[in-house]
Amino acid sequence: VLENQDLQDSIKPQKVEFRSLNLNTTLHWQPGWAREARDTLYFVQYKVYGQSTWQNKDDCWGIPSHVCDLTHETSDIQEPYYGRVRATLAGVYSKWSLSCRFTPWRETMIGPPTVTVVQSNKSVTVKLQAPRSPYERKKGSKITMTNYYDLLYQVFIINNLLDEQHRVLVYEGKDKVVKIQDLRPGVSYCIVAKTYVPMLDRSSAYSSRQCTVL
Fold it and tell me: Domain Fibronectin type-III, which positions (predicted)?
């Protein structure tokens, strides 16, 4: 019995946590410290906070990997959820390992906008597209994150003559098309942008650079 108890403890999943980007939500965990861990299989359950019964996640029932997609199961984004994972090895089952409480709307990271730059002789026009959620409209197109959040765009310009790291904020607001004027011909400029959620006081990472020489 003691050996089984040791094996139970040694395969128990560690650090169970939700990770979420643009409401694409996955549950992650780390294997226990058993040496034979690569033969371990995992079982995932989830529930809404306050519910008494756990739901099995069928796609993540007896899987070798350390990640499980719960995007569909957490689609009521204002609700708080829990996930939990247990492991099995050589006929022995570990106890369940529980995640912290996770509320998608509050905790998902929001990605940067997609940026397109169109140049004319002394100005650039920046076109911004909000990131998309995994959820679809009836016609099949993905719902953008602006449906769920009051998003602002922050547009920065980098003058490559001056300093690679020196980003100047040239616009903050909701416009999807931003014109930056009075730029110097022959100078290389790069544009990066972020999304910002005032209500949560949270910014995305920077978008990838779009560079142009006027």
Answer: 12-107
Those residues whose C-beta lies under 8 Å from the C-beta of residue 39, and which sit 6 or more positions away, are 89, 90
The whole-model pTM stands at 0.88
pLDDT tens column, 91-145: 999 999 999 999 999 999 999 999 999 988 889 999 999 999 999 999 989 999 9
Type of residue numbered 118? V
> How many whole angstroms separate alpha carbon 91 and alpha carbon 167?
57
**Cβ-based neighbour number of residue 199 at 10 Å:** 10
The identity of residue 189, as a single letter, is Y
SS3 letters across the chain: CHHHHHHHHHHCCEEEEEEEECCEEEEEEECCCCCCHHHCEEEEEEEECCCCCCEEEEEEEEECCCEEECCHHHCCCCCCEEEEEEEEECCEECCCEECCCECHHHHCECCCCEEEEEECCCCEEEEEECCEEEEECCCCCEEEHHHCCCCEEEEEEEECCCCCCCEEEEEEECCCEEEECCCCCCCEEEEEEEEEECCCCEECCCCCCEEEEC
